[in-house]
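Summary of Year 1 activities. Much of the first year was spent building the evaluation harness for sequence design. The harness presents a backbone, in tokenized form, and records the residue chosen at every position. We chose the following record to illustrate the format because it has been used consistently in internal testing since the harness was completed.
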């Protein structure tokens, strides 16, 4: 049996969708039913459920708020992922959890590979980097997946923000000095599952293919929905935000692609499918 934590988030929702499509049984839990920061509760919950895979989709994702909520951010992004690894080890289950491109400072100026040294610029990124380290040191049947700029149907994200802004504004300014890869949560779930099947545990990068600035991403979304307004280039220095962000944090996913023997689709394809999903749900 598969256990999903944080199952109502973007990634958790799409894991559920794929399992339903493939008629695979799973237990989906949200923060109310299973708070991952309460290790004893998790231990009790999984008893007699024959769990052979734990998928941790729960996280603290408010990068700016984390600057003032360090404790809860570390609990969710570092210590709870480690505790889940410990529990997976106790029951002999495979374990997968997620980290971020933000563990890098962007100075490399080239796509980041798994061997590159981390250099977090914010509390959120520090906590994620700590979580990676703790999980990999705790349990050798763990997958730690770094991903970037996730968007999906289930929660709020940059694509949805852009669509909302387009409804009330004729002019938008979006930064072109933050560069990475937008990643469709459906692809993140699907290619994670392909990786899990290989049993080749460890640290991996998993983003859609290609590279984009926030400006490129917004432009693609706005063109796709037929917005008639004016899109201007802005700079990060135009907006004062509490957390520092890297200028360039594109992840190179070729290690994962080599292991599963498949190419991951482009971010543009991900956005096309995401917009179709929104249309089908009447949200666009
Ligand atoms: N979003 C991005 O751009 C991005 C970028 C890089 C990496 N990632 C990583 O990718 C993974 C998936 O992200 P996502 O975008 O799918 O996240 P998401 O949509 O924000 O979902 C996170 C989920 O975690 C749940 N959660 C919060 N506190 C919890 C707790 N104490 N116990 C159990 N569940 C709890 C939330 O549930 P409630 O609403 O019930 O609290 C929420 O449904 C995360 O590890 C994230 O850090 C995301």
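For this record, the design step produced the sequence shown next.
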């Amino acid at each position: 049996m598969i256990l999903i934590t944080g199952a109502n988030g973007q990634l958790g929702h799409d894991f559920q969708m794929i399992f339903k499509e493939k008629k695979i049984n799973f237990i989906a839990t949200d923060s109310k039913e299973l708070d991952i920061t309460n290790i004893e509760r998790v231990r009790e919950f999984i008893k007699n459920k024959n769990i052979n895979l734990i998928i941790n989709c729960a996280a603290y994702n408010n990068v700016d708020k984390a600057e003032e909520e360090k404790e809860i951010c570390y609990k969710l992004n570092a210590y709870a992922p480690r505790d889940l690894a410990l529990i997976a080890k106790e029951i002999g289950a495979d374990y997968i959890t997620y980290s971020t491109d933000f563990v890098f400072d962007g100075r490399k100026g080239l796509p980041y590979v798994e061997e590159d040294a981390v250099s977090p610029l914010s509390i959120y990124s520090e906590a994620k980097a700590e979580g990676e380290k703790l999980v990999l040191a705790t349990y050798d049947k763990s997958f730690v997946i770094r991903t970037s700029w996730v968007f999906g149907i289930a929660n709020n994200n940059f694509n949805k923000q852009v669509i909302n802004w387009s409804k009330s504004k004729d002019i938008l300014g979006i930064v072109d000095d933050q560069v990475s890869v937008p990643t469709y949560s459906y692809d993140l779930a699907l290619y994670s599952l392909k990786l899990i099947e290989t049993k080749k545990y460890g640290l991996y990068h998993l983003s859609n293919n290609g590279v984009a600035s926030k400006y490129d991403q917004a432009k693609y979304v706005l063109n796709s929905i037929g917005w008639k307004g004016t899109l201007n280039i802005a700079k990060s220095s135009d907006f004062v935000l509490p957390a520092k962000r890297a200028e360039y944090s594109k992840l190179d996913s070729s290690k994962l692609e080599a292991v599963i023997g498949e190419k991951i689709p482009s971010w543009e394809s991900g956005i096309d499918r995401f917009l179709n999903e929104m249309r089908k749900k009447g949200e666009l």
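Residues 5-6, 8-11, 30-31, 35-37, 57-59, 61, 76, 98, 100, 147-150, 155, 185 surround NAP (CB under 6 Å). Quantitative recovery figures across the full test set are reported in Table 2.
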